[in-house]
């Protein structure tokens, strides 16, 4: 039960912690030293790129929940997995959340390979 609470609470904590501060505050050395691991490698000028970590966490929770709770419905699992990966691929192509171009390319190739498998 505690694990379930953590899986739901942590993405909301990250979401609120990153978005309650201005971009200038996020770029300060003090804030980056304390919370930089949550957004350091992502572009922080847009809401959707700044919160890419939250998107990844929610994706993992949904995929894990579909494996655990939909174990008798393999077609639903497969549909959910393909849909989530396709949506993430579109997100990566449109937003390119990483600061470094190579990381964006690697993530896009990874999602394409997952969908092709």
How would you sum up this structure, described in words?
The chain has 117 residues and is mainly alpha-helical. It has one domain (2-116). Helices cover 76% and strands 0% of the residues. It has seven helices and no strands. It has helices spanning 2-19, 23-26, 29-35, 47-50, 52-69, 74-95, 101-116. 9% of the residues are buried.
Tell me briefly what this model is:
Helices cover 76% and strands 0% of the residues.
Integer tally of domains:
1
Overall form: flat
Low-confidence stretches: none
User: Structural class of the helix and strand makeup?
Assistant: mainly alpha
Question: What letter string, H or E per element, gives the SSE order?
Answer: HHHHHHH
Distance between the termini: 34 Å
Radius of gyration: 16 Å
Number of strands: 0
Strand content: under 5%
List key phrases describing it.
7 helices; mainly alpha; 117 residues
List the helices and strands and how they pair.
Blueprint: H1 2-19, H2 23-26, H3 29-35, H4 47-50, H5 52-69, H6 74-95, H7 101-116
